[in-house]
Design goal:
6-stranded parallel beta sheet; globular; 29% helix; 452 residues; alpha/beta
Length: 452
């Protein structure tokens, strides 16, 4: 698959890195010489200096023979124009645009496939808000990923140092067979696709696939309290904070939002009736004490200053807040912040990477979510009639080592599989796979050549 990426910032760079590791044919375009230098020194991709709005440069990049263009710069207009040009130069190419401006999203019909040639618009803020709301729905989890409209959940639990689960073999959870499946374990910078003899260790992040209506059983199994949120404070009333506060307006949660910009606070206070809007500095210890931070179940820190976000989250935790969700834009920071006491991290750039990846995968892929550490993926896919995985027991399917089926969805039925489970055509599958085996998995999911 040939993919042209416009923009060598963190989003473009990370997508290019993942694809180059899978030996995809990638061309990366950016007008910043330093970024191009960084790409050529670190990635096995073709890097071109110039603008993605140049028809000549797009032709030089091989746009006529490319399968996809991903416009992922920080400038919406550049992304939109790049997709428009690509549409004119290659009517068969798939075009994905990263768009941040909410005004463009409101007028989304102006950018549909016929009008502008854009197949998919990715808004990182909206994706990030959906992630935060999912985390709020399952307060005891460190990560929550929804599949099939939320009917199946992938929940990440962090195993505390005093957990009774430490030393337990996965085969000891036999009584939960058919109800949940442990699909992956993140241990430091290592991802394990587990087997029955694997042992749970302290600080492991254990990813469990479970039906929505059986979450309580998982919490009991992992000795985690699942108390509903009562009080939430949002720090930062920018685009993401405003969308989140608006989404929580009709909930039963008592919500306060803090921002130091008086004009933003006045506008937000006029818009929201139930959410309390506070004009102040979220890093002010006295202010946090005045809003009774010690009684707060969750603090969501999503200002545009990531260093300040980390400071506020640590301060809130120190003053008694039970949990924090922290916005981190710099992807290189994410592996380290948990070591200093940050509970859960969300990133607009990582949200964009995750959203874009699903359009790049081969086979009938519905969604792709890199797991914590980015060395494995949770893939939602449809089983095709002629692929090699249907109509035989799972134990006989030649899945690549490092991949496992976590759930089978057949209409309204949700199956947590065993070795004798059989995948049928049109089934939806939740699959865990280490990054290095994804290409083999894609071949398994695609239509066999003899079908044609």
């Amino acid at each position: 698959m040939k993919i042209i990426i416009v923009g060598a910032g963190e989003v473009g760079f990370n997508i290019a890195q993942r694809l180059s590791e899978e030996t995809q044919d990638v061309v990366l375009i950016d007008k910043d010489p330093q970024k191009i230098k960084t790409v050529t020194e670190n990635l096995d991709v073709q890097a071109l200096l110039g603008s993605g709005t140049s028809p000549k440069l797009l032709r030089d990049a091989g746009i006529e023979g490319a399968d996809m263009l991903v416009a992922a710069t920080d400038i919406d207009e550049v992304n939109l124009i790049s997709c428009l040009l690509a549409h004119g130069l290659n009517k068969y190419i798939i075009r994905v645009a990263r768009v941040k401006n909410n005004e463009f999203l409101v007028e989304r019909q102006l950018f549909d496939q016929e009008a502008s040639g854009i197949d998919h618009i990715i808004n990182p803020q909206s994706v990030m808000v959906e992630l935060i709301l999912s985390l709020m729905e399952v307060p005891g989890a460190s990560e929550v990923i929804d599949f099939v409209g939320g009917r199946v959940k992938l929940i990440g639990f962090t195993v505390s140092k005093n957990s009774t689960l430490i030393g337990s073999k996965l085969m000891s959870f036999k009584e939960m067979e058919g109800k949940l499946l442990i699909g992956a374990i993140v241990r430091g910078d290592q991802v394990v696709i587990p087997h029955g003899k694997d042992v749970i260790q302290a600080n492991d992040v254990v990813y469990v696939v479970i039906k929505k209506d059986e979450i309580a059983q998982a919490f009991n199994l992992f000795n985690i309290k699942n108390e509903a949120l009562r009080r939430v404070i949002i720090v930062g009333a920018g685009q993401t904070g405003t969308i989140l506060a608006t989404a929580l307006e009709q909930s039963k949660i008592h919500v306060k939002i803090i921002d130091k910009d008086n004009d933003i606070c006045l506008k937000l206070a006029e818009k929201l009736e139930k959410v309390m809007v506070i004009n102040g500095d979220g890093s002010d210890k006295n202010l946090l004490q005045e809003v009774n931070i010690e009684d707060v179940d969750l603090v969501v820190v999503i200002t545009g200053d990531e260093e300040k976000n980390v400071l506020i989250s640590l301060l809130a935790t120190g003053l008694g807040a039970k949990r924090t969700i922290t916005r981190i834009s710099n992807l290189s920071y994410i592996p380290f912040v948990s070591a200093i006491g940050i509970n859960t991290v969300v990133s607009p750039r990582l949200s964009a990477v995750r959203a874009i990846l699903q359009y790049i995968r081969r086979g009938k892929i519905i969604s792709v979510t890199p797991l914590k550490g980015e060395y494995a993926e949770a893939i939602e896919a449809e089983a095709l009639d002629t692929s090699d995985i249907v109509n035989i027991p799972l134990s006989k399917v030649k899945f690549p080592k490092g991949a496992i089926v976590g759930a089978i969805i057949r209409g309204e039925q949700i199956i947590i599989p065993r070795g004798d489970s059989i995948i049928k055509p049109k089934d939806r599958l939740i699959i865990f796979a280490l990054q290095q085996v994804v290409p083999k998995l894609e071949k398994l999911l695609t239509v066999k050549l003899e079908y044609f």
